[in-house]
Amino acid sequence: MTPGAFVPHIHDLRGRARLLTAFFAGALGVLAQAPFDFWPVLFVTLPVLVWLIDGLVAQHGEAPYKEGRRALFKSAFATGWAFGFGAFLFGLYWIGKAFLVEAGVYIFLMPIAMTLMPAGLALFYALAVALSALYWKPGLSRVLTLALALALGEGLRGTIFTGFPWNTFGHVFLGESGLSQLSAIFGPYALSFFCVLIFAAPAIGLFKSGRRFKPFAVAIAALLLFSIGGHIRLYYAPNDTVPNVRLRLVQPNIAQSDKWRPGKAGPIYQTMLKLSGLQSPQYENGLKQVTHLIWPETALPFLMARSKQALDGIDALLPDHVTLITGALRTTNQPTTPQGISTRKVYNSLLVLDGKANIIRTFDKKHLVPFGEYLPLKSTLESIGLRKIVQVRGTFETGKTPRLIKLANAPPFAPLICYEVVFPREVVEKGERPQWLVNVTNDAWYGVSTGPHQHFAQARMRAIEQGLPMVRVANTGISGVIDPYGRVQKSLGLATAGIIDAALPTAISPTLYARFGSAIFWLVILCASGIILLTRPTEK
């Protein structure tokens, strides 16, 4: 098939052929996300989506107005859903690995979770495409409309029902260091608008006489311009570090299947102590040269704060000047009721210990993982047998402690436990600005898969958005130190036990996004809406 015949062929697709094409286009787009970072693939997938909608509009345009609009909405909704289902099914396949940790108990839920979650997330794309189709006009206007609707869909996906802003279109710019700097201006949702607009641009008149590759050339020019601007920013970016702050990150690589197994607590504890005390080329005297030791989320499979033996061992390990920052389970001392029911509350926490193993600061996780750390609609879902989903990890309470933590021997920092790091407007709370971010996590649930790479990429985006260094410590990887420009200073890959010794990069002035946040997104949306209204149709 010649290129000139390709577009009409997509226009003419009907029924299952159209839905399968949308599904495979969405699935192929996953290659634009981490760890593949092959973002040029969107020059194929997004134009295909535009052409599919073109075909739908042409197909239903001849029907009576009300019937045609209704049929167009339904067909476009199905097409958008198929596109989103392909994207999320292949982009989030790694979620299924969590059900293999206790396979004998939870394996039957694996296919349900792996299909229901992508199916639900695809609804945001379905609604965006359906609304776009209703306001579809020839020429540039239709691409602007699709970019606007999908950006709004991404923002909605990251907000309602506690939000899940994973693998947004804006994340693909992380695959090129210059383009990634756009995050400092726009944030992920406005960046999603520009991503769709640029990569869908070839759909405007491609293969048509007189302007064969003009839209594609304009899109490439925009990417080059943005990339050059980003590389100029990086060229002049300093590499300053905070004086007298020397970090050691510990990645123990404990398999999740071993984490809570009886008899493993002692060996895991000893592994943490052994790795923490190692000598290294950078710190030949080991912990004597370190100022801050950082362990991952729930580093120890027991209540560390209630174990005198564990605290005594940490006291013996730490020189007096060393501060330990660690993820840990924490419980309250609330008594049982007269009926014998425990009212004790459990938190997924971050603890800060001084050199004498005294707990001097505490942060409790605020944004919990649905079905992993708590059960939504608990009474209803427990009645149909879903109680045990959360029992392995425990049912946690939502934290109320301030996110900012001040230390005497380091700049103030903001802790982010696990997937709290994926929410762009939650990493820094109102008030005093932190000078670095600490993300402790346990991605062992997802093994060696694309999931931890995507998680790490989002940590990089938060650093760029806020202009703050990110120190990320993971149980099985990926751990690393990221500067405020998103540059990875040091890292330790998946399924590797070891340590990272590094200086703490210095924060920079608040970025445009850090200052104005969501206002930038809404300004972009407002401007795009105005352009759509003013754009005159030029072609079909």
Fraction in helix: 40-55%
Q: Kindly report the CATH topology of the largest domain.
A: Nitrilase/N-carbamoyl-D-aminoacid amidohydrolase
Beta-strand portion reads 5-15%
Strand order of the largest sheet: 5-4-3-2-1-11
Between the first and last Cα atoms, what is the distance in angstroms? 22 Å
Question: Which overall shape is indicated by the principal axes computed on the Cα atoms?
Answer: globular
User: Given the structure, what is the number of helices?
Assistant: 17
Number of strands: 11
CATH superfamily of the largest domain: Carbon-nitrogen hydrolase
What would you call the structural class?
alpha/beta
Q: Extract low-pLDDT stretches.
A: 388-393
Radius of gyration: 25 Å
Order of helices and strands: HHHHHHHHHHEHHEHEEEHEEHEEEEHH
Question: How many domains, in number, for the residues?
Answer: 2
User: How much is the average pLDDT?
Assistant: 90
The CATH class of the largest domain is Alpha Beta
Mind summarizing the main beta sheet? 6 strands, mixed
Q: Secondary-structure blueprint of this entry?
A:
Layout: H1 3-11, H2 15-28, H3 42-60, H4 65-91, H5 103-106, H6 110-134, H7 140-157, H8 177-180, H9 183-200, H10 214-235, E1 241-251, H11 256-259, H12 265-276, E2 292-294, H13 308-317, E3 323-331, E4 346-353, E5 359-364, H14 378-383, E6 413-417, E7 436-441, H15 450-466, E8 470-474, E9 479-482, E10 488-492, E11 498-505, H16 512-516, H17 518-534
Parallel strand pairs: 1-2, 2-3, 6-7, 7-8
Antiparallel strand pairs: 1-11, 3-4, 4-5, 8-9, 9-10
